[in-house]
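User: quick one, fold this
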Amino acid sequence: MTYRSLFRMFSSDLAIDLGTANTLVYVVGKGIVLNEPSIVAVDRKTRAVLGCGTEAKEMLGRTPANVIAVRPLRDGVIADFELAEQMLTYFIRKASKRRSMIHPRIAIGIPSETTEVEKRAVLDSTYRAKASEVHLVEQAMVAALGAGMPVTEPGGNMVVDIGGGTTDIAVISLSGIVYSRSLRMAGNQMDDAISEHVKRKHNLLIGERMAEKVKTEIGTAYQDGTPRTMAVKGRDMIYGLPKTVILEDDEIRSALADCVNAIVAAIRVALEKTPPELSGDISERGIILTGGGSLLKNLDERIRFETGMPVLLANEPLASVVLGAGKMLEDFKLLRKMSLN
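Assistant:
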């Protein structure tokens, strides 16, 4: 057995995609070992944590008055420092299993326009969760690496990572970022737009989980001639009673229009600001879409129509960020070069 394989066997290094919607953890030598919602269930009176991840999501909309389900991250950054720390500690322990005495070295992807204060919040939370060393890396860069793009070569690569809280757009060449933009418009804003539409048009209150289900099942970014409908249950705002309405894909596409338009407009700006030599590479290699938001039906078709560029969906769009951060941990020279701190 080689030294490298022995190192992987006993390594506690972790790559974390600390997402607004979901947190994924990658262990060097093992792959992705954890994928759970970034949610914490808290006692409203005592602030005691009652559950994290999947367990907490099951409580969403179904908790007693004294229990609330909280997302410690908002728009891709930490909104509640204390709960983020407890959630990270829970995920790190769960991923490390019995190796509780080992303090892991951790790589975390963050949005490109994260402020110094927001970076410090991520670093402090991770160190307090018992990490020995923390490396912050640009989300778009690790997403491109995780999607298998040749980011170390002298050629233009464009990646669009549409997560829960942010959309990160970057043009990458020679292991460096030529252009980057982080847009606080992504999957969660799409869910909110659907909830608002149903509330306004149908006088129906629906929960976060139902809005996400509507987006997944009948949400589209581009008309394809296939009509889709869905029965949605919620509470009637006028009578306060349970009610079911039938939603059509046309109205949901209209509700999502502002979100989709904002993302497409940001991609067009990125292309306009890309040096001509790299633009030629992108027109050959195409724009790569990653992140859960990229799974919106026909989004690739819409971007292709608006930009005239080939658009490809990553093989594992939900895992691209954590896979890329994991690759960096396995090539520490590359990690040192890419680390923002």
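User: anything notable?
Assistant: The CA atoms of residues 106 and 134 lie 5 Å apart.
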